[in-house]
Amino acid sequence: MSCTVRIASPLHSYTAGASRIDGRGATLGEVLGDLEQRFPGIRFRMIDEQDRIRPHMRLFINTEEARDLAAPVRGGDTVHVICALSGG
Amino acid sequence: MSTLWLGTRKGLFALRADARRRTWKLAGPQFLGHIIHHVVQDPRAPRTVLMAAKTGHLGPTVFRSGDRGRTWREAAQPPAFPRAADGESGRAVERVFWLTPGHASEAGVWYAGSTPAGLFRSADGGERWEPVAGFNDHPMRPKWVLNGTPDGEFAHSILVDPRDPKHLYIGISVGGVFESTDGGTNWAPLNEGVAADFLPDPNAPFGHDPHCIAQHPANPDRLYQQNHCGIYRIDRPGRRWERIGAAMPKKVGDIGFPIVLHHTDPDTAWVLPMDGQTVWPRTSIDGRPAVYRTRDAGRSWQRLDRGLPRARAWFTVLRQAMCADREARTGLYFGTTGGDVWASTNAGDSWRCLARHLPEIYSVTLAS
Fold first, then answer.
1. CB B170 within 8 A of CB B118
2. I want to staple B281 with a disulfide (CB 3.0 to 4.6 A). Which of B28, B71, B275, B289 is the partner?
3. Considering just the CA atoms, what is the radius of gyration of chain B in Å?
4. How many domains does chain A have?
């Protein structure tokens, strides 16, 4: 599946400044795995070693928040990688 | 030229000195907005510097420089716990808190300590990190490590005996001091004689709160410890710590975070006491900061406050935020939670401020 991934600014150092990336995968986990292949290191900053979404990261598929990596992604979807509030 | 690396809550800064340590120039920030817990130069390969970092949003990692900090590259495999079996809840590294270069004979070996308390090892200069199962999965670990601080557990003060790469120490807040003599496969507590006022058992074998442990490079059988409950010294193979903080002035007490050793004289050490009374403000005592020095292995202490603020200075100095150089007239350096850096080039006899208004300082380390 082809999708669009919107990348929040704290991760732009991995994407050479790009905020909008073409993604590929049938689940959120597959989309993030595809990103990791192209932008090494980016996944671990969002997802911990137990495959949990880090506390201040929020991942949306279109307007629905994804709670785990099994969330399905359909062709044409937009995956939003959002950095939520993390204190002062 | 000396460089002081300043790891702060908001990025990496550096202070660079002329040969006489009179003029210091502030550089940075690099990694603005990153939380920098520790920055450590490799004494075996001085162009190499490792940095433990995360941000408010992004997970913990390690950055590596091969050109004395001009450029940085992220580790390909940062410290991480093993994936848990299906249906089980596994641990995840929240912060890489501490970095220690390995033994002089083991080029490229590094150790890292984390929150939750975990020990990690790299054999390739910090590019790829593996968990040290002997500690992280020790059957006693759930009892050794107590989640006793508001910010979680901390693995710190990873010490490698300069005579033996397999002889290691680690400090756990809260958990205690632990020792391995086989390269990290097996571990045993080493806390006899140390107070733990927050535990009901005055002779508890573990569960203590070492804030900072230092091993003397010229006499590795001697270790000093600044603990949540006092200042201690141990001379191995002895197993009992002696509370040398008992000789501190009663009004000052012996609570603090850092302890720093003289590089050749095993009897000389410096501490920076904080207020551990009543509700534990952890600030300078009475707002009057002072360093204390012993030159007789803790039998007596001398107050050193010339040049430091005389009043109304309510800062804290964290465990990685004080260090000493190896000059004939020892240079001492500390950074405060208020973002100031202070230095002495006469072993603490007098002090001057090198920088102000930086972010909260977590780490002050020297590089050549």
1. no
2. B275
3. 19
4. 1
Q: Determine whether the interchain pair B89/A50 forms a contact, defined as Cβ–Cβ distance below 8 Å.
A: yes
Residue B292 in this model has a pLDDT that exceeds 70 = yes
CA pair distance A7, B267, nearest whole angstrom = 55
Query: Out of B148-157, B192-201, B225-234, B343-352, which region has the weakest mean confidence (pLDDT)?
Result: B148-157
Residue A72's domain is classified under what CATH number? 3.10.20.30
Q: In this model, does residue B79 exceed pLDDT 70?
A: yes
With an 8 Å Cβ cutoff, are B55 and A86 in contact? yes
A25: distance to nearest CA of chain B, Å?
22
Give the structural domain span for A42.
2-83
**pLDDT of B66 higher than 90:** yes
Q: Using CB atoms, pick whichever of A40, A49, A56 lies closest to residue B57.
A: A56
Give the span between the Cα atoms of B192 and B197, in whole angstroms: 14
Q: Which amino acid is at A28?
A: L
A70 falls within a domain: yes
Q: Is residue A88 part of a domain?
A: no
* Residue B1 confidence (pLDDT): 64
Residue in chain A nearest B73 by alpha carbon: A41
d(CA B226, CA B255): 7
Query: Any long-range contacts for B44-48 (C-beta under 8 Å, 24+ apart)?
Result: B44/B101, B44/B104, B44/B107, B45/B107, B45/B125, B46/B367, B46/B368, B48/B125, B48/B126
- Do residues B52 and A82 lie in contact, with contact meaning Cβ atoms separated by under 8 Å? no
Q: Output the tens digit of pLDDT for each of chain A's 88 residues.
A: 899 999 999 999 999 999 999 999 999 999 999 999 999 999 999 999 999 999 999 999 999 999 999 999 999 999 999 998 777 7
Which of B90, B92, B136 is closest to B111 using CA atoms? B136
ipTM: 0.91
Of A8, A50, A86, the CB nearest to B92: A50
Residue A77 within a domain: yes
State the fold for domain B3-80+91-367: Methylamine Dehydrogenase; Chain H (2.130.10)
What local confidence, expressed as pLDDT, does residue B187 receive? 98
Q: Is the CB of B56 less than 8 angstroms away from the CB of A87?
A: yes
Contact across the interface for B59 and A45, Cβ inside 8 Å: yes
- Is residue B327 over pLDDT 80? yes
CA distance A37 to A42: 9
Contact A86 B57 (CB under 8 A): yes
- Asked, as a colleague might, if the bond just before B237 is cis with ω within 30 of 0, I would say yes
